[in-house]
Amino acid sequence: MFTSLSDRLTATFKNLRGKGRLSEADVDATVREIRRALLDADVAVPVVREFTASIRERALGAEVAAALNPAQQIVKIVNEELQGVLGGATRRIRFAKHPPTVIMLAGLQGAGKTTLAGKLGKWLAAQGHKPLLVAADLQRPNAVTQLQIVGQRAGVGVYAPHPGTTSEADVPTGNPVQVARDGVTEARNKLHDVVIIDTAGRLGVDAEMMQQAADIRAATSPDEVLFVIDAMIGQDAVNTALAFQEGVAFTGVVLSKLDGDARGGAALSVASVTGQPVMFASTGEGLDDFELFHPDRMAGRILDMGDVLSLIEQAERSWDKAEADRMAKKFADQEDFTFEDFLAQMQQIRKMGSMKKMLMMMPGAAGIREQLENFDEREIDRVEAIVRSMTPHERVAPKIMNGSRRARIARGSGVTVSEVNQLMERFTQAQKMMRQMARGGGVPGMPGMAGPGGFNSPRKKGKNAKAAKSSRSGNPAKRAQEAAAAQARRERGSQPVNTGAAFGKDAGAEDFDPSALNLPAGFEKFLGK
């Protein structure tokens, strides 16, 4: 969504690198580029004006002049100001002291309210709540049916006493205000602790829609009124948000379709213009593509600083603990890494979602955006097909796979033999790394870790290697004596060990009595008796 804005800002900051001191002209040029980037991204003009004025004031102040790295200080200022534009601190749902908590969704038609109701319901259910979706949109054709299907997929209950309309020719007959009121009563009777009311929208703001939304709010007294806005709406986002703020007085904003390819800057203006924070973001079409909105993390994504915290949280939600424990036990027992384990790990990664989205959360991802865009998500499917085309024995004993077996696997998975060979090579490398780690050697080639090429490697490099060389004498006669002594030590080490010496007796002494040591029964066999 914010690709263009991120690229422009990243390019602007590159011009500041290497400068030990920033003049007023440097600051003005940077602020000018930031202003152009924001305007090109459809950010509202009043927001841009206030944003750049604050950056310029802070950039010319003491905090930059006294900084060791002025360029990094400018980036820090932009990051903090961007967080302010996005709403400041993370805002979470305020739950009612006495359930149920009533959440009302409002917005234009097509913003994604109905789908978002299911996403929010599933998100709340995963946190231990028992939500109920209320179908109060009786105007849009098949809106009630859509909510029922979404609720079924999300695994949450749906209250839909009225079928609504089925075509544009139908005249709405139900009372959405009464449906919303009855829905809250139904939730209270059935012990649902959260109610999510899906309301009707229009293609544009009109008095009838606002009045209906205001009546539903008055009838249900919601704890939260969430304004759902399409992140691709453009400059009209500010006017629409102000109209809903005046008509419904929403308490939070939800950005939908944040995975689109529009410039999306107008969505950044909503929180600043209305004074209400962005609380959630919808990042895809799936019911799991929904996340709590963190202004600091979103600012980091825009400035190409990455969002590692969200990536970790996503991994924790999707990772199977039992599978992780099984792999940990395999490491502890030093068992070999097999294709069965390889397949299980791939399935764990697939549960986390799109590989592109995950990689784009890494710091510096903007520099390899082109490669990430060309990344084929179906590559994981092809690898899985190859592994599933193997027999159970081949998966645990890959060494038996000769040419005919690989040809059979290629035919079974619909790929070429060369692709099977490439997978085998990658798997062999992964297997070697796993063996090294299981032995406690660390990752091969990683500095600071044990293993070949690491700091704990037995190979000496640099000064240590020179010290090893300098420890040998330069006198040929003395070197010969040292070599003879080393050979004698090796010969002594290869001779049989005196097994009786540990007990103060010579080897083969017949007067030694093992019973005098009070050893357990049967232990004498280890003493050669």
From TrEMBL:
Keywords: Cytoplasm, GTP-binding, Hydrolase, Nucleotide-binding, Ribonucleoprotein, RNA-binding, Signal recognition particle. It is found in: Cytoplasm. InterPro entries: AAA+_ATPase (IPR003593), P-loop_NTPase (IPR027417), Signal_recog_part_SRP54_M_sf (IPR036891), Signal_recog_particl_SRP54_hlx (IPR013822), Signal_recog_particle_SRP54_M (IPR004125), SRP (IPR004780), SRP54 (IPR022941), SRP54_GTPase_dom (IPR000897). Residues 277-290 form the SRP54-type proteins GTP-binding domain. Residues 440-454 have a biased composition (Gly residues). It is an enzyme of class 3 (hydrolase). Residues 440-529 are annotated as: Disordered. PANTHER family: SIGNAL RECOGNITION PARTICLE 54K PROTEIN SRP54 (PTHR11564), SIGNAL RECOGNITION PARTICLE SUBUNIT SRP54 (PTHR11564:SF5). Involved in targeting and insertion of nascent membrane proteins into the cytoplasmic membrane. Binds to the hydrophobic signal sequence of the ribosome-nascent chain (RNC) as it emerges from the ribosomes. The SRP-RNC complex is then targeted to the cytoplasmic membrane where it interacts with the SRP receptor FtsY. Belongs to the GTP-binding SRP family. SRP54 subfamily. This is Signal recognition particle protein. The gene is ffh.
